[in-house]
Specification:
four-stranded parallel β-sheet, six-stranded parallel β-sheet, DNA-binding, homodimer, alpha/beta, 42% helix
DNA sequence: TTGAAAGCGCTAACAA
DNA sequence: TTGTTAGCGCTTTCAA
C-alpha cells in the first residue's frame, strides 16, 4: 500500500503517500489532507530515492550496511526534502527513545546546575537528549514527575540521592528504565550510585577545626527532611565532634534553607545566643556566604572572631574575600560519569558500577585558630 | 486480532495479548517472549476491564465521555495492573508529544538556571515535560541540538535570544513546532519574544553614573559574538555615553567571558592602564563580583575609588558587602510567561504575543560620586 | 456511549 | 544487500 519504490530511480519530490483519498477502506481519514506541506516521512524518502523504507532506515541507523550507491541516493533525498526522522515513531518501533530523564531537587543551586550541565553535555555527545524535571525538594511532586518521565519512555533515569518515596522506586522497578543515583554512596537500595562521602567530608571539616583549637562548633545544616545529603553532612559533623571529644550542643545545630538570606538569619540566630560558637560548619557555600555577609555587617571578623566553613566549592568561593574554606564536591565529574555509565549500559549492556569520588577539604581563609578568651 | 474484550467483565491479570506464538502469520515475532513481566498496554487494561481500547483511551484523556460504570472498571484495572501509558505511542498517534524543548546557552549562569526552572515548573503544572539542551554559546552545536529536539517531536521550542544560525531557523520553520524566544525584544524575525530591553537598561545605568559625575566610564561586556544580549548591553552603554556627551574610549570597552576569574582579570586590565576609569559597567553580576574582588584585593575602594555596576540582580548581590548596584532582570517572570504562552497556544491555539518586561536599575552601594581629583 | 479498526512513521524479522 | 511486511501502543474516525 505504501507507494514506496514507485519505479523512477531519480529523486522526485513525491511527498505524501496516497494517490486518492476516496477509495481507502473506512477508518480514519488522513490527518493532513494537503499532502503538500506535510513533513516528509521515510516513505517519501524511499519513494524519492527509489528504495524501500527499510533501506532508508538502514542508511539512517547503520549506513555501512547499505551499498554506496543506494546510500548516496537516500542521503541526497534526505537533504533535498529536508527530512527529519520521527524520533517518536523510532522510539515506538525500537523501544528505545534515546532520551534520559533526570529529576533534580533544584536548579537554583549552582552545584546541581553544573552537575546537570555536565550530564547533558556528555549525553548529547552520544546522541541522547535530556528530559529535566525539578522537584523543589517535594517528594510527592517528585513521584508524579518521575511517572511522567517514565511515560515519555526514557531509556534511563537519573536521581539525586537515595531519599525518595517508596512509590518512586516502585515506578522505576516496574518500568524497563535503568536508574543511576547521583550524590550518594551505595546503600541499602540496590542501585548504582555515583557520588562521594558527604558525611566523611563533613567529618574532615571538624578535624580541621579541632586542630585549630575550636571547641564550640556549630552546624548550620540545610533542611534535612527528605534530603540525605544534608542529613549526611550534619551526621558527619556530629561524628567528628564526638570523635574529638567535643560537645554536641543542640542549640548550635540549626537547619536553614539553602539561601543567602537564610545563611544570614542563621548566623544571627547563632550569634544572638549568650554563648556563640567559635566556628560554624555550613551545609553549603550559599549558607556560608550568607553567614559571612551577616558577620561582616555586624563587624564580626572572619576568621578572627569566628571561623566559617562551606560545602560545595562554588567557583565564587575561591575569589571572594576572604576566600572560603570549603569541601570540593565533584559535581561535573559525577554528571559526566553518570552519563557515560548510562550510555555504556544502554549501548553494550555494560553493568553500571557504583563510583565514589573524593571530596577534599579546601582550606582557604575563612578558618583560623579559635579566638583566645572564648571557651 | 488483539484479544481485547475477551468476555469476562471482571478484572483478571491477563497481561500479554497473544495466546499462542506459533500460528501467527510470518513477520516479526513478539519482542518480549515472556508475556509475563511485560508492561501492561491499553489492550491489557481493556481486556481486564472488559472494554475496548478506545474506551480505555477515553477514560485516560476525557473521562467524562465515558459512563461512570465503565470508567470505574477501567480505573480499577489501571490501578491494579500498575498501568503507565506509553507517551511515545500516544505522541505518534496524536502528533502531540506534550514535550517542550529548550536550548539554553549555559546552566552555569544562575540567571538562566532560574529562568529555566520557572519555565519547567510552569510547564510541569500543565502536564508538559521539558527537554533541555545546552549549547555553551556554540552556534554549530546548537543547530544539531535543535534538530535532535525536533526529532524528538517537541510541541514547541524555547530559544534564548534572536542570534541563531539561519539553519536553526529553517529547521524550526520546517517543523510544526511553535517557537518562543526569551531574553529578546521583538525584532526582524517574526517570532514571539518574551524579554526586556537589554540596551535600554544599560543606558539607564549610564544615566545613573553620569548623574553621579562620572566621565571616564568603562564597559566590561560579556563576549558579544553570537550573543545579542551582551551586544545590546554594550550598545546601550555606548548610546548612554553619547547621549550625555561622554567619551566612548575604545580601550575602556573590553569583553570577558562570564566568570569571576575573568571579572578579576578585566578589572586588572582596566586598572593597569595609566588612566583607569572611575566607573565600570559590567555585562553581568558575575563579572561585577569578580571586579569587586579584584578591587578589594588591590585595596581599591568601591565605590570610593571606583563605582561598579552589575547586571542580572542575582540573589547574592543584595546581601554582599557592599551590596551591588545592578539591573534587575525578570528571569523567572520570563520563564513562567513563556511556559504559559506556549501551553495556551498548544491548548486553545491562542496566539502568542510578544511581552516586554521592565528591567529596572537597582541602586545599591557599589556606586557613588565620581572621585574628586580624577578626570 | 461504545466498539472496530485504520493509521501514526518507524524498525526489524524474514525471505529473496 | 535489499525489499516486504508485521507490529510497536496508542488515538480517532466511523458506525452502531
Amino acid at each position: 500500500m505504501t507507494e514506496v519504490n514507485s519505479g523512477r530511480g531519480g529523486i522526485s519530490a513525491l511527498v505524501g503517500k496516497y494517490r486518492d483519498e476516496a477509495d481507502r477502506p473506512h477508518g480514519r481519514r488522513r490527518r493532513h489532507v494537503s499532502a503538500r506541506s506535510a513533513k516528509p516521512t521515510a516513505g517519501d524518502i524511499a519513494a524519492a530515492a527509489g528504495v524501500s523504507t527499510a533501506t532508508v532506515s538502514r542508511v539512517l541507523n547503520n549506513p555501512m550496511s547499505v551499498s554506496p550507491e543506494l546510500r548516496e541516493r537516500v542521503e541526497r533525498a534526505v537533504g533535498e526534502l529536508g527530512y527529519v526522522r520521527s524520533g517518536v515513531a523510532r522510539a515506538l518501533a525500537s523501544s528505545r527513545s534515546f532520551t534520559i530523564g533526570a529529576v533534580v531537587p533544584t536548579l537554583n543551586n549552582a552545584i546541581f546546575a553544573a552537575s546537570l550541565a555536565a550530564f547533558e553535555e556528555q549525553l548529547a555527545a552520544d546522541g541522547y537528549t535530556l528530559l529535566v524535571t525539578v522537584s523543589n525538594y517535594n517528594p510527592t511532586h517528585e513521584t508524579g514527575q518521575l511517572r511522567r518521565l517514565l511515560e515519555r519512555g526514557v531509556d534511563a533515569i537519573m536521581l539525586i540521592g537515595l531519599d525518595h518515596p517508596e512509590e518512586s522506586w516502585q515506578l522505576i522497578e516496574h518500568s524497563q528504565a535503568t536508574v543511576v543515583v547521583l550524590w550518594a554512596l551505595p546503600g541499602v537500595r540496590k542501585v548504582p550510585c555515583i557520588g562521594f562521602d558527604n558525611a566523611g567530608a563533613a567529618e574532615a571539616v571538624v578535624d580541621h577545626l579541632a586542630a585549630l583549637g575550636h571547641r564550640r562548633i556549630a552546624m548550620m545544616a540545610g533542611i534535612t527532611a527528605g534530603n540525605d545529603r544534608a542529613r549526611a553532612r550534619r551526621a558527619g559533623v556530629e561524628r567528628g565532634l564526638r570523635k574529638h571529644g567535643l560537645p554536641v550542643i543542640p542549640g548550635l545545630f540549626i537547619e536553614k534553607r539553602y539561601s543567602h538570606a537564610d545563611g544570614r538569619a542563621g548566623f544571627a540566630e547563632l550569634f544572638d545566643r549568650p554563648d556563640p560558637p567559635t566556628a560554624i560548619v555550613c551545609g553549603n557555600d550559599v549558607l556560608a556566604m550568607g553567614a559571612i555577609f551577616e558577620a561582616q555587617s555586624r563587624g564580626i571578623a572572619v576568621p578572627g572572631d569566628v571561623s566559617i566553613v562551606g560545602y560545595d566549592n562554588l567557583s565564587i568561593t575561591q575569589h571572594m574575600m576572604p576566600a572560603l574554606t570549603t569541601v570540593s564536591v565533584p559535581s561535573e565529574a559525577m554528571g559526566r560519569a553518570a552519563a557515560r555509565a548510562i550510555v555504556e549500559h544502554l549501548t553494550d549492556n555494560a553493568e553500571i558500577g557504583s563510583i565514589t569520588f573524593h571530596a577534599p577539604l579546601v582550606v582557604r581563609n575563612t578558618t583560623g585558630p579559635a579566638p583566645a578568651g572564648r571557651p
